[in-house]
Each structure stands twice: as structure tokens, then as C-alpha cells.
Predict the 3D structure of the following.
Amino acid sequence: MNEVPNEGVTRTLARYVVGAQPADIPDAVTHEARRALLHWLGCSLGGCRHEAVEAALATFGEFSGPREATVLGRGESVDILLAALLNGISADVLGFSDTHLKTVIHAGGVIGPAVLALAERTRVSGKDFLHAFLLGIEVACRVGLAVYPWHYARGWHITGTAGTFGAAAAAGKLLGLNEQRMTWALGIAATQAAGLREMFGSMCKSLHGGRAAQNGLSAALLAHNGFTSSESAIEAPRGFAHVLGESPNLTAITAGLGVTFEVSQNTYKPFPCGVVIHPVIDGCIALKAAHAFAAADIRRVALRVHPLVLELCGRKTPATTFEAKLSVYHSAAASILKGRMTEQEYAVAIVSNHEVVAVRDKVVATADAAIREEEADVMIEFADGKTLHHHVDYATGSTQRPMSDADIETKFRGLATPVLTAAKIEQLIDACWSITQTDDAAVLARLAAAQI
Amino acid sequence: MNEVPNEGVTRTLARYVVGAQPADIPDAVTHEARRALLHWLGCSLGGCRHEAVEAALATFGEFSGPREATVLGRGESVDILLAALLNGISADVLGFSDTHLKTVIHAGGVIGPAVLALAERTRVSGKDFLHAFLLGIEVACRVGLAVYPWHYARGWHITGTAGTFGAAAAAGKLLGLNEQRMTWALGIAATQAAGLREMFGSMCKSLHGGRAAQNGLSAALLAHNGFTSSESAIEAPRGFAHVLGESPNLTAITAGLGVTFEVSQNTYKPFPCGVVIHPVIDGCIALKAAHAFAAADIRRVALRVHPLVLELCGRKTPATTFEAKLSVYHSAAASILKGRMTEQEYAVAIVSNHEVVAVRDKVVATADAAIREEEADVMIEFADGKTLHHHVDYATGSTQRPMSDADIETKFRGLATPVLTAAKIEQLIDACWSITQTDDAAVLARLAAAQI
């Protein structure tokens, strides 16, 4: 894409989003967007009953306007702005989001809620919907790249800040904004961008993604109605990149625009726990899948792990879900017994289950500086002297071994099972893979509404 | 107020707000809060038909929930969160707000909309209402003092950022939050604080105050429902003061808390134009008030002014309202002819009025380095050789000569006249002066709703 000389990056970005066509997106990139979409829906379904969602719904539900949009996984309908907020909160609360590793932005769970809410109000084809979703991720990640790493190190929760631009661009694309109004939408997003890392550990951490979705959608709606902003909101001396960044790399916003796509760099976590114990879980699941054995026959589980595993996740006798997610011992035991590691295997009932605890007490983990972070060695020794061994070179979800479509489906099923019927779950998976064939993207929301 | 050792300023501030009692506020301070209240209502009434308000209402009106609150000066009712937004926008759009000179925060127009919206939903006495309003101003200004001037120089619109804390504290006080929840409310405010100075000159400039009111009110409502945040949101290394400030002065937040009151430092602008031409307008109005003369007899108007007046406001032939506000020539002519200088005297019809233009062309302004910024010398020479002379030492609204209650009433009448009947205007003025005697503060909103 050729840039007009002396034009600011805000306008260049706006013009690109306005002019972009679905046909210009390579198939592999479009498919990555489908994966991000399915993955986000799973995260929101999994998080929809979290206390942060309950508190936000209890607060804002009574102020809802026309109830045109779905709170994913739940029976309630709310206005589209509130739906964007709530589905953005639920997307984040399990800490299980997609991650653009170059910026640590969790884009899918911000852009998705904004565009899905809009699609419930105004009919939009699946092709246009997925394209807007993809463009929103692109904008969020490129704005993030301009200010990362200083921005994040300073204390900004980049998903909340950069995410607002992405939600505005995606919603603005669906609204058909022209270049002038898309420029304003990005400016209105810029001046609402917020979210402090200090909030990590509290419900506010998830508020950031929700507000980014809601404020980005608001920005697009305001611009659609002629609400004006600065037209160089990102690059101006008192604009976003210089106020919330330091010596920003503005070129990152426009370099290769329309040629390279940041969604291709998106990654997904297979297990809802500290990423350092993922290789161990991979090895345990592999052994369980390949062999038949009885838990009672296990004498010892010997793990060799990167030293960081014991530093960060060395809790031997976890009692709560939170503690279990920081325990390589529970994680190994539960994954050997259950053959999977989803939110359910971190429920308190499983954490305190006597069979799980019995195996957990037989786990011995040894830190080994020769083991890489993505690597682990798992050996199960049985009472009769037999052993099973599996060595994991690269954990699932690492850059070297990304989650397959089937892996994302499995994760999705684990997250959706508590709130949707098995039939709805399979329909929703199919609807995501075939999203570009539907003439009404809101089908996703209808399938993801829980039965009441 | 004694601080618990090692306690953070966020909690100290929360505890103060929770424990503060109306009886602890000196009468003069309470009266300053009444002045700020009346002044804000005037600004919102004057701005209520501005295109920024129209665009925001056109955007969000259809998403309104229960229509329990008043859009000041207009016929529409909207939900309380939207009312806080719209009345916060209207408060700012004329650039006529109250100013806390030490931080350039326009607090009244942020805190007022938040507490009035809440008072329309839940009955609250005038005494408690005014106290909450005053506490909100206190919190906004103290948080602002902690980060000013670096924060503003960096590019943050401090009314938008610090204002959010004030609105949260004021709304939280009316909701009766306990110390824990007030601490969360301040944290939820901190992580939504936003607004870039780059937006000055666009509608987004006024969005900042509106969002501060709305987000602060949201923060209090969320905290009321148990939504959690960091408990050291202001002072933590990745909290508000260190991320949006540099080497913040945290002591400013707690020093003299409950003893000195920042609302006492609030100032008000008498005229809706560049502050540097205020002394000239003062002089012209004084001459018009003291003498009877015919415009046709004027031969020359000779002004001696501070050099900055001609630098900033030297437009000789303004055509638009915006240009006229930057013209000492129009401002002198119109104030000599009309004896006042309100928004109406900057309307295009007056700017191009032949009688005004005739006098304007006779104005000669001379820059004089011996004249201070708050000073001006005005001489009117008539065809018959007579002269009238007035020297202004300190303009009305300066620290040395603050606006009197009568001045604020006059400004209020000028702003409210286009939207309210004369009877309603006088009732509203009375209601503000006697606010602590009513058992229902929402009377202000009912009086400030336009007849439809």
C-alpha cells in the first residue's frame, strides 16, 4: 500500500481499513482469523459465570437499553454496548486468551465482542464479519507495536489501550465509515485508551478488555454520527503514541500494511495454567493417551523440568483452583489421570480428590538447567518395575508447535461444556469454521446463548 | 486527619471521603461549592444545544436504559450513566468552565453531572448532595496536584483523568460506600482515567469531562456491587501517579485533608472568550453602565493593552463566533454597545451587525509593555471632543478580584436565557443558593429541564 507523502499514520491506517477487501486477504490469514474467533468464543463461554461478569452485569444490567445482544453463555440479553463490555470481560477472566507474542496483546477477546454485538443489531454477512474482526486485530496489534515495549513496561495494560483502536476500526468497518469518519473513530478511541497493569490480580484486569471493546464500539458509533476528533491522534506530539509511549516506532503501524498480517502471529494456550508447566502436561497427556494403566499401580512420577517451573509453580499441596494452577504436582497428577487439562481439572473437587492427591504425592520434580522452557521429561514408574517415558521437545502452543485446529476445538469444548449442550457446541464449532459462508454472522451469538 | 503509618494514599483518601461530614466543612467553603454548582449548571445550560451534545445524544440516545435522568436544558430524559456523559459534555463545550488554577482542572462540570444523575435516581438531601459535590472536587484536585504539571505538559487533559477520581468519590459518597469499596471505586476510576490534549479543537475535548463523569459514576456503582480493583491504585509503581505522572507529589493528596479545601481555589471566567481580553471588556462594560451615549457619536475607542492581547486576540475583522472570541476589536465594540459580553454577543448576527462593525472599525488597540495581563486602559472619544475613560487594574475573575455571587448569577442568566424561562432561571438560582435546605436535590434537574 502506497502512503501519501507527509500523511500521518492515523489517516493512512484509516484509509487502509476503509479500502480493505476480504478478497485481498490470503486464505491462510483468513483461516487464522477463524481460529482466533472460535478461540475467543470459547474463552467467553468459559468465563461467563465468573464473579467479575456477575458483578458487572449486576451493576449495569438495570441500565441496559434495547436488549438486542447476547451475553455469551448466559440467558440474559442486553444492549449492544453493554454486551461488548460483558463479553470482553468474560473473554479475559480465565487468563486463557489468545496472545500476539510480539506485543502480549490479547486481541481476539476485545475485537470479537465489539463486532458480534454490532452484528446482532445490523445484519452482516459472515465474510464481512470475519474480515472486520481480522482488520480489528491488525489495527490493535500495529498500534501496540508502535509503543511496545516501553508502554507495557511503564505499566499500561496494552490489551486495554491498543485494543480500543482495534475495536473502533472493526466496528467502523462494519458501519461502513468513510476515511474521514474512520480517522475520527481512531481518534475517539485514542482519547479513551486506558488500563493499568497495577490492576492485575483484581477484577479490573478484565474490565480493560471489556471497556476496550465497548469504548471502541462507541468510538465508531460516535464517528458515524459526525463526532469529531483530532485527525492525527496517534502520531501528534500530544497524541497517543507520544503520551503513552516513548520514542514510538510509528513505522510499525504502516509497514507492510495489507501485505503482512499480525493475526498470523497469534498464539493460543492449551491449558489454563502457568505457561511454564505446559510441557509437563503435554507429556502426561501423551502417556495417558498411548497406554492403559491403573493409577493405583503408579509408584513414582519423575519429572525433569526447567528451573523456572519449580520457582513459579512449585506448590506441592495446593488447596484452591488458583493454587492448583501454580502447581506442577497437581497438574501432572490430574493430567495423567484424566488425559486432559481443562478448567474442570482445576476445580476444587478435583484438586482435593483422593485419587488425584494420591498420585500428586508420588510426583517428584527435578529442576534441570539443561532443559529448555518449552521442554520437559516425564517418566512414570510402576510398582512392578515397568516404566513409561515421554520427552517433550516443544510444548503445544509454543511458536515451534502451534495448537492445531483440533487442539483449539478441544480447548473450546472444555470451556463451553459447562454452559452449552454438546449439540450446540458442535454447531458453534462448525459455524466458526464455515463463518464466511453465512449471510448472518449473528448466528454465532444465537448458538452461544445458553438455554434458560 | 491522622494517617495510619505505611498506609497508601488511595486508602487514606478513601477513608477521608467515607468519614467526612457536612458539619465539618467551614461555611465559606460550603458557599464556594454552591457557587461552583450554580456556575456548572449555567455552563451545561449554555452548551446543551452544541453540536457535540447533539452528536453524542444522536449516537447514544437509542441505547439508553431507564430514562430516569435529565439532559440539562433539553426535553430528553436518558438513563443516569448517559445523563452524566451528556451533561459533562455540555458543561465543557463553551470553554467557559470553572478552573482550579493550580491544576487547570475544570472540576464542577465533571462532578456535578455524576452526582445530579444519581440524585435523580435515589432521593438525596441537598445537604448531602452539596457535600458529595464538594468532596468530589476535593478528590479530583488533590489527585491532579499529585501529578501536575508533568502530567498536563506530557499531554494529558487533566480534567478527564483526575476528574474521573472525583466523580467516583462523589458518587461513592452518595451511595454510602464503605472504606473498602470506596478504595475500589478510586481504583476502578484510576484504570479508566483518560483524555489527550491533542483533542483540543475537536469535540473530543468535551468528551473527556463527560466520560470522566460517566466512568466515575460507573466506578462507584461497580464498587458498590463488589467489583474489585487494586487497593493502591494511585501510589503503586504501576498505578496512576507513576504511569501518568513522573516523580509524583503523593503528599499533595493527603496534606491538610479535611482542613484545607481546594474548592476555595476555584475561579470563574466572566466572559466566553480569550482570558487576555477580559480587562478590556471589563472597562467597556463599566463605561457603558456609568454613562449614556449614542454609538453614532463615537469617534474613536483607544485601548492600551498588554502585548499578549494583540498577539493572541488581534483579529480586526472577525467573521465567525470562533474568530470573534479571538478579537479584542469585536469584544470592545460589542461590550460598549451591549453593556455585557455573553455567548449571544459572539453570535454571528452580532459579529456582522452593522452598528457593531461601525464601532469595531473605530477601535484602536495599542500594545503597552507597562500594562499587566490583568490590566487595561479604555478611552472613548466622541465627535464633540468629549472623552470617557476607565482604567481596569484587575479584571473580574482574576485571583485579585474574583467574581462575586452577583457576577456568577449574571453569567448564569446569560447562559440559561436561550433555553429556560426567566421564572425558571430565577428559581434555579434560588435553588442553588438554598440547596442545603431541600430534602430532594433532584429539584435542580427538574428546574433545569427545558419545556417541550
In short: Chain B has two domains: 9-268+406-447, 275-392.
